[in-house]
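dude i think i finally got it to work??
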Amino acid sequence: MGILMNMGISPATTITPEPGNATDPAALYRLMNWLSPSYPVGAFSYSHGLEWAVETGEIRDVASLAAWVSTLLTSGSGRNDAIIFHAAYWAAEGGDVDQLWDIAELAAAFTPSRERQLETLAQGAAFCRTTRAAWAGPMIAQLDSRASIPYPVAVAAAASDHGIGVAMALHAYIHAFAANLVSAAVRLVPLGHTDGQHAIAALETPVEDTTAMGLTTDLSQLGGGTVTGDMASMHHEIQYTRLFRS
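look at this
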């Protein structure tokens, strides 16, 4: 917590109730577009270390895939992304660019490997560029002028710009996190598309639980217990044959 205070981030202020106003159809449309596979952030090129787990046999079927992704969501990088997203959303709501930047630096520091950092920063930069061009907003415009914006920070800022409620936006972001890993596994294991949907169905509750946790947990609780997943991302850096960037 001392690190956060030195950066000017107050952990306690990041827990704030969801706004009462309903999300309008236009805002929902934008959220669905930003987190769809067609949005040009390059999500398809990252496996989050999953490629190494497939090569070693840690992930070999629907059950092992769902267990791997569920653990990332509830105890690893998905959990951290949820906490960071929530904090970034409220910094953007308050128009506090300096705090948003502090959160971005903290998020980058919490990536456990070089490739994980590349994954979040490259997607964040791509998201800022595209969104500024097509879906302009005051906070995303200011972020786009800065380097190294992690992906959850960028999406949270855009959601705030466009009046999308934090709970809905975070739920969609965490779903996209899980769905992208399932898509990678469909290609790598390989799994059929129906098996991929079985995995998505199995992850419904972990996605909901991670969203709920992110909405009620402050930045002082960042951290994780997914050592195998973190090691997978490090091993991937030197994997002899690979299809993905992480």
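The mean pLDDT is 89.
im so relieved honestly
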